[in-house]
Amino acid sequence: MHWSLVVPLKPLALAKSRLAAAAGGALRPHLALAFAQDTVAAALSCPAVRDVAVVTDDPLAAAELAALGARIVPDLPAAGLNAALAHGADTVRAERPGAAVAALNADLPALRAAELAQVLALATQFPRAFLADSAGIGTTFLSAAPGVELSPAFGGPSRNRHLRSGAGEIAVDGVDSVRRDVDTPDDLRAALALGVGARTAARCAALPLALPGGAHEEGL
What we know:
40% of the residues lie in helices and 15% in strands. By secondary structure, it is α/β, with parallel strands linked by helices.
């Protein structure tokens, strides 16, 4: 099965506010863009991924991510994260009604294609499936098989909401890069320890973070 991924990205000026203390007002939007670029580049290099639709109204992010090969979907609902994800999934299926779709966070700068492929393979066992984040509280991935509504419930303690909605939880070790979203300086240190993509590594070079970061090649 090949998947269409839907990646939501809010305007860069508003993104990653909890990184302001570490990144500052000027660098923070560029860091958010680097996260998204490394996420999308790794996702597009995954053999199980057919395409990536990024839902965003940010013109800079749209241009940069389109250059990587992503399809840009304007956030017409403008009603928050879950509405953007549902709109992205509907847009994909308006063209391909039988598409298998999955929502993926835009802040997975350590994402590796091989680990994403593991998650997608396990997702085929469920009508809907999700992967909890590293803390076991939120969600970084939610999938819907052909003919099944995505019904996203991201934000805050979304693991429990997705469980209550009937989605199957993907329980597998060795996919840390798919779980490691970045909201705080501690999250960023953890992602750097895993090994982030080249764009995030370059942006982080100027940050006074305790852990050294390393870049990995896209698709590893």
